[in-house]
Design goal:
seven-stranded mixed beta sheet, single chain, ligase, 5-formyltetrahydrofolate cyclo-ligase, globular, Rossmann fold, alpha/beta, EC 6.3.3.2, three-stranded mixed beta sheet, NagB/RpiA_transferase-like
Length: about 200
């Protein structure tokens, strides 16, 4: 049995990582400003009062300005903390100090909550390597968000935050991959009719 989807994903992830790495600071600044505007619009459109999101890394589309905006307006925010068993714990965003989790991802230093803390959020923002126009998301290969989304009852809208060129025609998929309801890019908000 071949691992064709897995091999295709690895190759595509390598290409996408390189594209993100070589973006100029001007491109990043322009993308950040536009993304923040669109994330604010999405939060307003969905009347979000409780949000699950993530702290972006330097190569990812920037979520930090949006998180500051949301916190200033009293929106409750949970951020993921990776666990060794492949699940996510959650911690409230407090805009204060950060540390790194077991994968080296930025996380808050606030109180650590368990995996079910995400229940009841109005919107989930997830990172992605790319997303297909049918809503299939390709992450970075560890499956943390796929497991979280696949285990939720009554999952709220889920939107991936990506750069414009990461919205693609199709992505290689495997059984465990979970679709998203839409994407937020510097160009705007795209919603999918996910089955």
């Amino acid at each position: 049995m071949t691992d064709e989807p897995g091999n295709l994903k690895r190759a595509l992830r390598a290409e996408l990582r390189e594209r993100r790495r070589i973006r100029t600071s001007t491109e990043r600044t322009q993308a950040s400003e536009a993304l923040t505007r669109h994330l604010v619009q999405l939060a307003a459109d969905l009347d979000v009062g409780f949000l699950a999101a993530y702290l972006s890394t330097p190569d990812e589309p920037d979520t930090r300005d949006f998180l500051r905006w949301a916190a200033e307006r009293g929106i409750r925010i949970l951020l993921p903390v990776s666990r060794e068993d492949g699940l996510l714990d959650w911690a409230p965003y407090d805009g204060e100090d950060e540390e790194r989790d077991i994968l080296g991802m930025p996380t808050p230093t606030s109180e650590l909550l368990g995996p079910i803390a995400i229940n009841g959020v109005d919107l989930i923002l997830v990172p992605a390597a790319c997303v297909a126009r049918d809503g299939m998301r390709m992450g970075w290969g560890r499956g943390y968000f796929d497991k979280t989304l696949g285990s939720m009852e009554g999952c709220p809208p889920v939107y991936a935050v990506i750069f414009d060129d990461e919205l693609v025609d199709s992505v290689p998929t495997e059984r465990h991959d979970m679709p998203v309801d839409g994407v937020v890019t510097p160009s705007g908000i795209t919603s999918f009719a996910v089955a």
